[in-house]
């Protein structure tokens, strides 16, 4: 399945110490679908997305649905920081998520219960985990923080929350990053609104 690694320009340019962790070995099925020549197979692997026969197209689409469901069940990843008691939850990915960690420290030091929900996979989006978090009695609102003026992830957050709690937005475009101060101010304003 094609994979896109999405990251913002800052992450692409940063240098900092890293901590290496062993990568667990995974037993993967044979790649008999790969377009690498015929080898020992009795057929060519031709990748095709255009099926003129309706029956064949239907079978192909059902196969893709099964594949996507398996990916969603096995590959969805996220991180939740201080969400077990958070009243306000910041949703963010990439650089804004890193900045949000500092905002969390600042706000928690002032006694404001704030958490961070960081999708690691944007697709499949961790909608079930976010939906469950939205249903928690202690959560009162969400603040989606992004480096985009219209909110690339905002609809995903709203769909996952399903109107259980209000979802607010803080974002900039053109490489302008939301600051710690903006996040702190937005959370404090939001906290007053939802009391």
List the helices and strands and how they pair.
Layout lengths: L8 H5 L40 H22 L2 E4 L6 E4 L3 H15 L4 E6 L7 H8 L6 E6 L7 H8 L5 E5 L8 H14 L2
Parallel strand pairs: 2-3, 2-4, 4-5
Antiparallel strand pairs: 1-3
Helix pairs in contact: 3-6, 4-5
Which key features would you list for this structure?
13% strand; single chain; Rossmann fold; alpha/beta; 5 strands; 195 residues
- Under CATH, the topology of the domain at 78-193 is which? Rossmann fold
Radius of gyration over alpha carbons? 21 Å
What's the count of strands? 5
Order of helical and strand elements = HHEEHEHEHEH
Q: Residue share in helices? A: 25-40%
How are strands sequenced across the largest beta sheet? 1-3-2-4-5
CATH architecture verdict of the domain at 78-193: 3-Layer(aba) Sandwich
The N- to C-terminal Cα distance equals 46 Å
Largest sheet: 5 strands, mixed
Total helices: the number is 6
Q: What structural class do the secondary elements suggest?
A: alpha/beta
Low-confidence stretches: none
Average pLDDT taken over every residue: 90
Q: Outline, from the CA principal axes?
A: elongated
The first-level CATH class name of the domain at 78-193: Alpha Beta
Question: Per DSSP, what share of the residues sits in E-state strands of 2 or more residues?
Answer: 5-15%
Describe this structure in words.
The protein has 195 residues and is an alpha/beta fold. It has a domain at 78-193: Rossmann fold. 37% of the residues lie in helices and 13% in strands. It has helices spanning 9-13, 54-75, 95-109, 127-134, 154-161, 180-193; strands at 78-81, 88-91, 114-119, 141-146, 167-171. It has a five-stranded mixed sheet with strand order 1-3-2-4-5, sandwiched between helices. Strand 4, helix 5 and strand 5 form a beta-alpha-beta unit. The longest helix has 22 residues, at 54-75. It is elongated. The mean pLDDT is 90.
